[in-house]
Write a structure and sequence with these properties.
By secondary structure, the protein is of the alpha/beta class. It is built from 13 helices and 8 strands.
């Protein structure tokens, strides 16, 4: 073989080998870094741009796509110990020209975390109001979507600031007095009786605990490699003390049933999406909202747990868009043609 050709092949092979070796090294030795790259790549692919909003020394981190148009802007609120990128799987199936905003909740992700902030549901509602006003999102009514803890915050926000809200979608929301107790609630009660403050199922500190949490939150049984589980734990460990602080706030007397206490004040069109096999927030909570809020529309998803956004992203996106279009009197089959 000609030496020049051989050298070319070796160089080409080395060039290809470098990213492969880098990926392999990240997978085995720095899985948490690989997860960050994964989210960065997904945001870039979907056209989501990360931005910051400063409010008197407090900074919100959020991602955005599109500009305000004929349809209302859509603001999405994630759940406890998550971050704005939770919504990327749903964003993938939403119209590209829809004005979308995914914000890191107070103290989460890239949003400011302070030891003096109020992380109760009401405290988070006040912070969210700051964010909405700082980016002038309330220039016209917007559609608000919240999942789990974010659902409780979204519902209370809609009750407190009704003129801001075009429509409201709550996905397996926390903060209700559910007629039936979930597996998660029973676990918490057992911990409380035993006088144990550690071992909260939603705050894992080992790969096994992470796997247990994923099984608790999902009906679909994901088979996740040990290295990825370790990466997920590594990414969370530095924040676990903060997560415990927030958790104790949102399950405290002032926040535990905050959505329940405010639901009668919700005047915006309400959509509720719930996984029938939810083991974190019992699906019986949907009936509570139907009884309290006139015209409430409920979608119960078969073979789906608490992580509706991750388990059924395409269905979630379709339900949200159908609901928005119905409120506007638009045929959802033509919704993709509108900006």
């Amino acid at each position: 073989m000609d030496m020049d050709l051989l050298n070319l092949l070796l160089v080409a092979g080395g060039t290809l080998a470098l990213p492969i070796l880098a990926f392999a090294a990240s997978f085995f030795f720095w899985p948490s870094a690989l997860i960050k790259v994964y989210y960065w790549y997904w945001r870039r692919t979907l056209g989501m741009q990360v931005r910051y909003a400063d409010c008197g020394g407090y900074r919100f981190c959020y991602s955005v796509r599109g500009k305000p148009g004929t349809r209302p802007s859509v603001l999405l609120l994630h759940g406890f110990s998550a971050h704005k990128d939770l919504w990327l799987s749903v964003v993938k199936f939403l119209p590209k020209h829809l004005h979308l905003l995914c914000v890191d909740m107070p103290g989460h992700g890239g949003t400011t975390r302070t030891c003096t902030d109020d992380y109760s549901i009401q405290g988070q509602v006040r912070r969210l109001h700051q964010f909405v006003e700082s980016i002038r999102l309330n220039k016209k009514p917007f559609h608000l979507v919240g999942s789990s803890m974010g659902g409780s915050v979204a519902g209370v926000y809609a009750a407190c600031y009704p003129t801001h809200i075009f429509g409201l979608t709550l996905i397996c929301p926390a903060g209700l007095r559910c007629p039936a107790e979930s597996r998660f609630v029973k676990q918490l009660q057992a911990l409380q009786r035993a006088g144990v403050s550690q071992g909260i199922p939603l705050i894992p500190s080992t790969p096994q605990e992470m796997d247990d949490m994923l099984q608790l939150c999902s009906y679909v049984r994901f088979k996740i490699p040990q290295q990825i589980l370790q990466g997920l734990v590594d990414a969370r460990l530095p924040h676990n003390d903060f997560y415990r602080e927030v958790f104790m706030k949102i399950v405290g007397e002032d926040s535990r049933h905050c959505l329940h206490d405010h639901m009668h004040q919700i005047t915006a069109p309400l959509q509720v999406i719930w996984g029938k096999q939810d083991q974190v927030m019992d699906v019986s909570g949907a009936a509570v909202l139907v009884e309290a809020v006139p015209g409430c529309q409920v979608e119960l998803l078969e073979n789906c747990g608490h992580s509706v956004v991750m388990e059924r992203p395409r269905k979630t996106a379709k339900l949200i868009m159908d609901f928005i279009c119905a409120q506007q009197g638009i045929d959802s089959t033509s919704s993709k043609k509108l900006s």
